[in-house]
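Data card: per-record layout.
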Amino acid sequence: MRHSLLTLNALGIAVLVTFLAGCSGGSSQTPALSGSTNSLGQAFSRQVTSLRPLTPNTSHGFMQAIGARTQLLYMSSWGTASVVDVLTMKGKQVGQIANGLLGPEGLFVDKKGSLWVANESNVLVYPRGGLSPSKTLTDSVGDPIDVTVCPDGTAYVADLYDNSSSNHASIQVYAHGSTTPTGSLDYANDFRNPFLTCDAAGNVFVALLTADSVGDGLVVEFPLGKEKGAKDLGIVLQSVGGIKPDNAGNLLVTDLIAHTITEYTENGAPTGHSIATGTATEGIAVSRDGRIVLGATDTTQEGPVGVSWSFPGGKQLQVYTCCSRIGPPLQVNEGVAFYPGQTGI
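The structure for this 345-residue chain is written out next.
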């Protein structure tokens, strides 16, 4: 069971993120959306072209006829189905990964093109174009919700909370090649840490909550992926969302209540660049050239949806909707990623 990141406060602010129990299996179809409403009750009008799901090639994967320079995007989805949908930048579905998935959330693409999926009780790694995992990272400490890999190959997994204490969360560290934790990162006031990232220098940044109320979000840096010297960057968030480095060496951080993606220096100072998303945006990804930001929108009403914006201009470029069946329990989409991955990470 996934748990809400926020509870209602005295002012009656609605719950933004509801983690619903996922189940594997299920059929696939493409929803046709128009003028749907997000979980905050605000109109999020858009026009979406209905896409007919394609049957992936089960022998050679979805990249059999796709060149190495082709840009794709991934969107995780779980509810009535647990899948990662694979789309072209124009929104055409070219594949769907389901093998081994149960509640997939955070996604990461490494420099080899492998897809890492934070998946309920473990992390699965799918080789470039593969439909079956080639590696499983076990995690008995907590409930994996996001994953990142630093340039030296060390993987970091954010556990939503520790199994031993629902009032605390931590980050599991996997040395290069290891499938079991070789260490952990802990922060004194870490109540929930749903999103994390690594920069080109190997510094790890975690967007976390210190409590379950609005305004308790912040960003902590673990220099070179070490607990020693961990520091709060002074970024105050109403509710934490996705976090990624951009090609300028800064951080992009989303706020689920403010409906923004804001650029900060790695010292925590705002640069003046911000994208108004119009809806709660959770996991985010940055294209290899740094010009496009992709976000997983709050989709508890309409099914898995991604939105892309230009960066730094903030112009909405495209809405992606594909392809998992909608119906109780509702689909939840919290992870997005680009292939190929970002430069340097």
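Known properties of this structure: The chain has one domain: 72-339. Residues 263 and 272 are 7 Å apart (CA to CA).

See the next section for split statistics.
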